[in-house]
């Protein structure tokens, strides 16, 4: 269901990479709800299992890189797709303050200075 706002900082920012149908940015608790609605309603993304968590890499005391697997059938083309994408999540005072999506795990790792 809708992400729980109690886990999100009131000033949270969510962004996806520019070629996503839902690039954002989304701000605050209302933005979290809007992001969730947009991701789940995006015609292009219908049929995908978007949030199969593959790995979590600890960057430092506040940041992690999460690697997800998306697989499914594109709604209009019906092409089978299977790919990995990643996000850099920042947490302070037990609340998510930002979540920035990247098209590949390598892009997310590079954004936080982790090498392949």
Can you give a write-up of this model?
- There is one protein chain.
- By secondary structure, this protein is an alpha+beta fold.
- Helix content is 18%, strand content 46%.
- It has helices at 28-41, 105-111; strands at residues 8-15, 26-27, 48-58, 63-73, 80-92, 95-102.
- The chain has a six-stranded mixed sheet with strand order 2-1-6-5-4-3, sandwiched between helices.
- A hairpin with a 6-residue loop joins strand 4 (63-73) and strand 5 (80-92).
- The longest helix is centred in the first third of the chain and has 14 residues, at 28-41.
- It is globular and about 45 Å long.
- The model has no long low-confidence stretch (mean pLDDT 86).
Summarize this structure briefly.
Helix content is 18%, strand content 46%. It is an alpha+beta fold and 116 residues long.
């Amino acid at each position: 269901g809708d992400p729980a706002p109690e886990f999100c900082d009131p000033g949270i920012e969510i962004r996806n990479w520019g070629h996503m149908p839902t690039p954002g940015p989304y701000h605050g608790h209302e933005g979290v709800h809007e992001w969730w609605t947009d991701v789940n309603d995006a015609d292009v993304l219908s049929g995908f299992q978007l949030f199969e968590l593959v790995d979590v890499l600890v960057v430092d005391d506040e940041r992690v890189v999460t690697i997800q697997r998306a697989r499914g059938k594109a709604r209009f083309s019906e092409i089978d797709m299977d790919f990995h994408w990643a996000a850099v999540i920042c947490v302070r005072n037990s609340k998510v303050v930002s979540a920035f999506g990247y098209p590949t795990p390598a892009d997310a790792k590079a954004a936080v200075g982790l090498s392949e």
